[in-house]
């Protein structure tokens, strides 16, 4: 039933003039899902309070409750069409009354880790893109048929939402910023092996895929109420700069069962890295920071190693944010391993001297849809210098792409060998003292299969050209704004 509802929603959104892409579909579905989730949560809390003989004070006031404006019911429990807003009246209400009311919660919330604060953040950042009140009415009716009552229902909804995020990632370059293939995330988590006592952080959270997968990994280990309480409230932490990603990430965590996720809507890189103190550090870091971005000079001033490359600034942030003895797994483009500019060399040296870079996983082209660059995953522990690096070149035996995405079976050999740093046709070790002491070059060179690097496919080259064109267009647009 849920799957059909999501298909119906997509059909409605495709016909809506205000929604032009999968990104819009996911954003608009998100705020509607959030309000329906909130209504179900309030109903459950009210019932629980009644059973305890207590009085429950709702978060949303009576005038703005889902059951009044979105889905008023008649005596038989069916939608009361006479009271349900629709058409221009519905659009006017949502834009002029509902969103401003919900946005006001941010200023009234007691702290950032409350659901009230999340309400204010979400509705202060996104806008209703429905232009037709009749399309919005159809979407509301579809959403109203969903129920968040049981864990089984939440699990099914979270899987459907993940599929929607994946579609958004496949829709193009911008969407791809929010989606890391889940088999890769699961493999990274299995190597890092977080525990229930760890704090887990992603400073470039996107759709919170890393934290959701880490939650699924740890949930079976939470045997007591105290374990579950810790898992829900004091284990997962995130920061995200972009509004859409913040909303999607928040909804994704909620659908996985985390009621008030510890996601801060902020530019992670605006924080001076030298100001990070012990209380700000985490036991585990899992991340895929954006690569190819450029940061302004004032942001670069927050870092000892000055560079405009966003991913390199994030890597500095992650090294400083990791506790001594903590573990990290970070996706980065493979040119980091070999670039000879001052920033790349200095950052490699910093990583090798302050951390044990024990594993480098070389991913095949096409792992990330729409990205014209190859990536590697760096696995490192904080506190001891690198003595030996174990490399693994992943070869799934096929061309990766939208119709041939990465799967869990592709990662099995890597996970098995990594446990003992076992060598093989695609796995080898390099002693740190054999690295070039000037460049600290970490290039992936398989001694078991010396060969020329494979030529990039025409599609990869076209993807990169498209990416560069998009960058140029964005820069020109900024220049025009200044004129």
Automatic annotation (TrEMBL):
GO BP annotation list: DNA restriction-modification system; methylation
Presence of the UniProt keyword ATP-binding in the record: no
Enzyme class of the recorded protein, top EC level: transferase
Reactions that this protein is recorded to catalyse: a 2'-deoxyadenosine in DNA + S-adenosyl-L-methionine = an N(6)-methyl-2'-deoxyadenosine in DNA + S-adenosyl-L-homocysteine + H(+)
Domain DNA methylase adenine-specific span(s) in chain numbering: 153-452
Domain N6 adenine-specific DNA methyltransferase N-terminal: 4-105
Keyword tags: Methyltransferase, Restriction system, S-adenosyl-L-methionine, Transferase
Pfam families: HsdM_N, N6_Mtase
Molecular function terms from GO: DNA binding; N-methyltransferase activity; site-specific DNA-methyltransferase (adenine-specific) activity
E.C. number(s) listed in UniProt: 2.1.1.72
Superkingdom to which the source organism belongs: Bacteria
InterPro entries: D12N6_MeTrfase_N, DNA_Adenine_Mtase, DNA_methylase_A-5, DNA_methylase_N6_adenine_CS, SAM-dependent_MTases_sf, T1MK-like_N_sf
Keyword Methyltransferase in annotation: yes
Family: Belongs to the N(4)/N(6)-methyltransferase family.
PANTHER family named among the record's database cross-references: SLR6095 PROTEIN, TYPE I RESTRICTION ENZYME ECOKI METHYLASE SUBUNIT
Protein name: site-specific DNA-methyltransferase (adenine-specific)
């Amino acid at each position: 039933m849920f799957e059909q509802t999501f298909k119906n929603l997509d059909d409605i959104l495709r016909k809506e003039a205000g929604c032009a892409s999968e990104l819009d579909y996911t954003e608009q579905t998100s705020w509607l899902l959030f309000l329906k989730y909130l209504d179900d949560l309030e109903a459950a809390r009210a019932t629980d309070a009644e059973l305890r003989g207590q009085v429950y004070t709702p978060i949303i006031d009576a005038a703005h409750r889902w059951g009044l404006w979105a889905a008023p019911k008649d005596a038989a429990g069916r939608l009361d069409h006479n009271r349900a807003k629709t058409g221009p009246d519905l659009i006017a209400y949502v834009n002029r009354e509902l969103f401003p009311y919900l946005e006001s919660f941010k200023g009234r919330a007691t702290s950032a880790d409350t659901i009230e604060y999340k309400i204010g953040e979400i509705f202060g950042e996104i806008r209703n893109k429905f232009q037709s009140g009749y399309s919005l009415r159809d979407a509301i009716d579809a959403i109203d048929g969903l129920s968040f009552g049981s864990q089984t229902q939440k699990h099914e909804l979270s899987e459907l939402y993940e599929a929607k995020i994946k579609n958004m990632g496949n829709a193009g370059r911008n969407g791809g910023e929010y989606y890391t293939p889940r088999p890769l995330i699961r493999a990274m988590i299995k190597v890092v092996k977080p525990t229930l006592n760890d704090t887990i952080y992603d400073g470039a959270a996107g759709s919170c895929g890393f934290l959701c997968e880490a939650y699924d990994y740890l949930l079976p280990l939470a045997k007591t109420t105290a374990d579950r309480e810790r898992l829900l409230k004091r284990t997962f932490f995130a920061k995200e700069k972009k509004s859409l990603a913040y909303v999607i990430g928040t909804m994704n965590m909620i659908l996985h069962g985390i009621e008030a996720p510890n996601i801060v809507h902020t530019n992670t890189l605006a924080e001076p890295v030298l100001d990070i103190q012990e209380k700000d550090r985490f036991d585990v870091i899992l991340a895929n920071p954006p690569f190819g971005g450029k940061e302004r000079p004032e942001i670069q001033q927050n870092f000892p190693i000055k560079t405009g490359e966003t991913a390199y600034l994030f890597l500095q942030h992650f090294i400083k944010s990791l506790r001594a003895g903590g573990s990290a797994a970070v996706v980065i483009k493979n040119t980091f391993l070999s670039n000879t500019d001052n920033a790349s060399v200095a950052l490699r040296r910093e990583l090798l001297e302050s951390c044990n870079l024990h594993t480098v996983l070389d991913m095949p082209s096409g792992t990330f849809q729409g990205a014209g660059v190859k990536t590697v995953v760096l696995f490192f522990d904080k506190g001891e210098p690198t003595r030996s690096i174990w490399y693994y070149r992943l070869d799934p035996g096929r061309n990766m792409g939208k119709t041939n995405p990465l799967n869990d079976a592709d990662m099995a050999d890597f996970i098995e060998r990594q446990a003992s740093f076992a060598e093989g046709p695609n796995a080898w070790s390099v002693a740190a003292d054999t690295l070039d002491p000037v460049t600290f070059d970490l290039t992936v060179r398989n001694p078991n299969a010396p060969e020329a690097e494979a030529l990039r496919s025409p599609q990869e080259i076209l993807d990169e050209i498209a990416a560069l064109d998009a960058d140029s267009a964005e820069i020109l647009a900024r220049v025009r704004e200044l004129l």
